[in-house]
């Protein structure tokens, strides 16, 4: 029997955009769950996941997502509980780890990491000019429901904390350094 996780590839607009970090720690994973749970009912529905992925600019196939989610939703629930979400996350990581072993022949770890960072950068660089401005960061934070988006001063502080050349924007090199420091 084929694994219900296989269709996850269709969620992303790029094959290189995967959850490569072997473990999002529980605090980060909980924050992701809470962001997806837009109505705060402690369940993530297909609609909530689809909405979050769309806001991030990622394509999703609702049919494939529905199949995946249903395989992790407990009987009687309308969506994923946090524990269900953790199980789904582990399964995706296991599948991607196995897939990654097959890809190693074609692509080394640094190339995959660079491609992942490029895809993540594109989520923030909405106008495609090669920089993340305070306005672009504010838009993405707002779409994700972060309260920091309400205050441009906070957004500018975030930018300045990684803006090494002090031009008021984050370029790809600065973004990479920041992401590598986080993970």
Summary, kept brief:
55% of the residues lie in helices and 2% in strands.
Helix content class: 40-55%
What is the CA–CA distance across the termini? Answer: 35 Å
Total beta strand runs: 2
Q: Uncertain segments of ≥5 residues (pLDDT<50)?
A: 1-24, 97-105
Radius of gyration: 17 Å
Order the strands across the largest sheet as they lie in space. 1-2
Strand fraction equals under 5%
Report the average pLDDT across residues. 76
Large-scale geometry: globular
Largest sheet: 2 strands, antiparallel
| Helix run count | 8
The secondary-structure class comes to mainly alpha
Q: Give the topology string: H per helix, E per strand.
A: HHHHHEHHEH
Topology:
Elements: H1 26-36, H2 46-55, H3 62-70, H4 82-103, H5 109-124, E1 131-132, H6 134-143, H7 152-162, E2 170-171, H8 172-182
Word description of this protein:
This protein is mainly alpha-helical. 55% of the residues lie in helices and 2% in strands. The chain is built from eight helices and two strands. The protein has helices at 26-36, 46-55, 62-70, 82-103, 109-124, 134-143, 152-162, 172-182; strands at 131-132, 170-171. It has a two-stranded antiparallel sheet. Helix 5 packs across helix 8 (172-182) and helix 6 (134-143) crosses helix 7 (152-162). The termini are far apart. 13% of the residues are buried. The model is unreliable at 1-24 and 97-105 (pLDDT under 50).
């Amino acid at each position: 029997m084929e694994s219900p996780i296989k269709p996850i590839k269709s969620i992303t607009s790029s094959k290189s955009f995967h959850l490569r970090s072997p473990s999002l720690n529980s605090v980060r994973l909980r924050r992701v769950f809470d962001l997806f749970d837009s109505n705060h009912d402690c369940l993530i529905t297909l609609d909530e996941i689809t909405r979050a992925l769309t806001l991030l600019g990622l394509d999703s196939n609702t049919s494939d997502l529905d199949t995946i989610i249903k395989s992790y939703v407990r009987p009687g629930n309308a969506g994923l509980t946090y524990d269900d979400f953790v199980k789904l996350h582990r399964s995706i990581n296991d599948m991607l780890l196995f897939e990654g072993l097959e890809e190693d022949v074609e692509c080394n770890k640094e190339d995959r990491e660079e491609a992942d960072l490029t895809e993540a950068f594109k989520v923030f660089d909405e106008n495609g000019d090669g920089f993340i401005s305070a306005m672009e960061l504010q838009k993405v934070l707002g779409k994700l429901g972060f309260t920091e988006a309400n205050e441009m001063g906070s957004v500018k502080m975030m930018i300045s904390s990684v803006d090494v050349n002090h031009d008021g924007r984050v370029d790809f090199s600065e973004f990479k350094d920041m992401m590598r420091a986080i993970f």
